[in-house]
TrEMBL record:
Pfam families: Arginase
Name listed for the protein in its UniProt record: Agmatinase
InterPro entries on file: Agmatinase-rel, Ureohydrolase, Ureohydrolase_dom_sf, Ureohydrolase_Mn_BS
Top enzyme category: hydrolase
Record-listed E.C. numbers: 3.5.3.11
PANTHER family: ARGINASE/AGMATINASE, GUANIDINO ACID HYDROLASE, MITOCHONDRIAL
Gene: speB
Alphabetical keyword list: Hydrolase, Metal-binding
GO molecular function, one term: agmatinase activity
Family: Belongs to the arginase family. Agmatinase subfamily.
Length: 321
């Protein structure tokens, strides 16, 4: 950590002159972009764009995930001093990563939101970058996946979650964070035969052919076995990773709209995300961080680390291309 630099560096979200490298400004001060990356709407030369989607219309219980992107950015201010732990490369130094800011939408016209988000992500992909999205409730993954499927065809989904979110709902216009993956499968956006859900611990009579690794299986067989099974199912197909923070047990992430006991530990998730290096990931998100229900900030910290691991997984894939 270059402490000397903290005397001169501040507001790197606006003042840094490039998109690569660490940041050494004081963690407790300055503008809080994700990992102190530069805020920009110019995606020229950008490899990965981090964007926020402050949307929580569709929550089951506790609202507040619209504040998730802001909290995750703030929590990430402790991370940009060193290369992410456990990786054999520094994603912050090797790749041009920008904070693309948040999606703008009219909260008074909720029905217009999905198309606005799809267009937002499509703009990132058309510019040649991958997206890492900070949510927001889990519904946001469906409009995002539509943009990815337009580019890659039916996508493989890797979902960390307490809930499968494939409950039956044939009204494609309904905005619901518990049925969006049912719709994604039924509309041909997601390929269920090459998709995996990890950490599930709520009942659903029909997973639509998606492979399920429930929380008990991870606890009993270990993180390494789960990773091996995930890689076998995904193969080398383009994959989108979505991480609902309630995949973690409430002891590790109490600030979520739908906490469920018996969940994954932060240690298990750290191992799995790191060891998934090699999958053909093309984008990802972390959702359902609801800071009003966690005064400690632990949930936002977990969200910031998950988003960083997604950046590293994308970097690992880009290094091979």
């Amino acid at each position: 950590m270059a402490l000397e630099d903290a005397k001169n560096q501040v507001d790197q979200a606006f003042t840094r002159d490039d998109l690569k490298g660490p940041s050494f400004e004081n963690a407790f001060g300055g503008a809080t972009s994700f990992l102190r990356r530069r805020y920009t709407k110019d995606l020229t030369g950008v490899d990965i764009a981090v964007t926020g989607v402050p949307f929580d219309q569709a929550v089951t219980n506790r609202t507040g995930t619209r504040l998730g992107p802001r909290a995750i950015r703030e929590a990430s201010s402790l991370q940009p001093y060193d290369p992410p732990y456990g990786w054999d490369f520094d994603v912050l130094s090797e790749f041009a990563i920008a904070d693309y800011g948040d999606l703008a939408f009219d909260y008074g016209h909720v029905s217009q939101f999905p198309a606005a988000l799809t267009a937002h992500i499509k703009g990132i992909l058309d510019a040649g970058a991958a997206s890492v999205t900070l949510g927001g409730d889990h519904y946001i993954s469906f409009p995002i996946l539509k943009a990815y499927a337009e580019k890659y065809g039916p996508i493989s989904l890797l979902q960390f979650d307490a809930h499968s979110d494939t409950w039956v709902d044939d009204d494609m216009e309904r905005i619901d964070h518990g049925t969006m993956f049912y719709k994604a499968v039924k509309s041909g956006v997601v390929d269920p035969a090459t998709s995996v859900q990890v950490g599930i611990r709520t009942t659903n009579p029909d997973t639509l052919g998606v492979t399920t690794i429930d929380a008990r299986e991870v606890h009993e067989n270990g993180a390494a076995a789960a990773v091996a099974k995930i890689k076998q199912v995904l193969g080398d197909r383009p994959c989108y990773l979505t991480f609902d923070i309630d995949a973690l047990d409430p002891a590790f992430a109490p600030g979520t709209g739908t906490p469920v006991w018996g969940g994954l530990t932060s240690g298990q998730c750290a191992i799995m995300l790191r060891d998934l290096a090699g999958i053909n990931i093309v984008g990802g998100d972390v959702v359902e961080v609801s800071p009003p229900f966690d005064s400690t900030g632990a949930t936002a910290i977990a969200g910031a680390h998950v988003a960083t691991e997604i950046l590293c997984l994308l970097g690992a894939r880009m290094r091979r291309s």
